[in-house]
Amino acid sequence: MYAGQLGAEWSSGGESIGFAPAQLRFANGSRIELLKPHDTGSNDFLARFLERSGPGPHHLTFKVPDILLAIDAARAAGFEPIGVDLRDPEWKEAFIHPKQATGIVVQLAEATGGWSNPPPDDFPTGRRRRGDGNGTVRPASLRRVTHAVADLDAGIDLFGRLLGGGVEDHGTRPGEEWIDLRWDCPLAVRLISPTGGPESRELSAWLGDRGGRLHHLLMADEEPDSLIDARPAPPGLPGLGGSLQGQHLWVIEPESNLGMRLVVAQL
Question: H-helix or E-strand containing 27?
C-alpha cells in the first residue's frame, strides 16, 4: 500500500535483534517504519506484540538532541523511561510505556546522523496511472498522526509539555475535542478525545478502557478515489474537524491495511 499505491520511497532497512525494519519516505519528507519479527530467539518483543494485538501501530519516535537530558526531563514530569540503551554512540534510545504514554509506545532517540541503504530488489517502484491517462499519480504525503486519548490533558502533558509540540489549532465538534501539535518537521499529531453525550459513543466505545489508541494517519494524494480499498469517509468519522471539515475525504480501513486506518485527502 505505502509504496505501490501511495508512492513512498525506500529510505532504509535491515535486520536487527527481534525485528527487521523498513523505513519509507513520503513526498513531504515524513517517514513511516514497518516492522516484522526477526531473530525472535534473542528478543521476541515484536512477535509477542503481534500475537497479543495483531498488526497495527506500535510506536511513535521522537528524536532528541541529548538522550540523558530527555530521560531526566521525562522523570521530572512523572514518566519513567524503560528500555534505556546507550551502548551505540550513533543511536541511543529509551521508551515510555503505553500505560504512561496514552496507549502507545513513545520512543526517544538521540541519533548522530541519518542512515540509508539501497532498497531490496523486489521493492515496488511503479506508480499508479492517472485517471485521465496522462502520466502517473504524484507520490502522496503523510501529514498527520491522529491519536485518540481518554484524557486530553494527559495527552497534552506528554506530547506538548514534555515532547515540545507547539499548539497549531484547537477546537471541538459534536462528541469530541481536538488539538493539533506540531514540531519543526513535516509531521503533526492531532489528539482527539470524547466529550461525552450520544455523539461520543462511537469514539468512546472504540477507545474502551484504554488510555489512548492511534486512530488513523492522514495522507494527501492526487487521486485518492483510485486507491485500492478506498471509500468515501463517513462524516462522523472521528478526527476530521477543523480544516478537514467539509472536504472530500476517503478512508482505507485497518482490515485492508495491516491494522492501520488511513484517511486520505485530495492533494
Answer: none
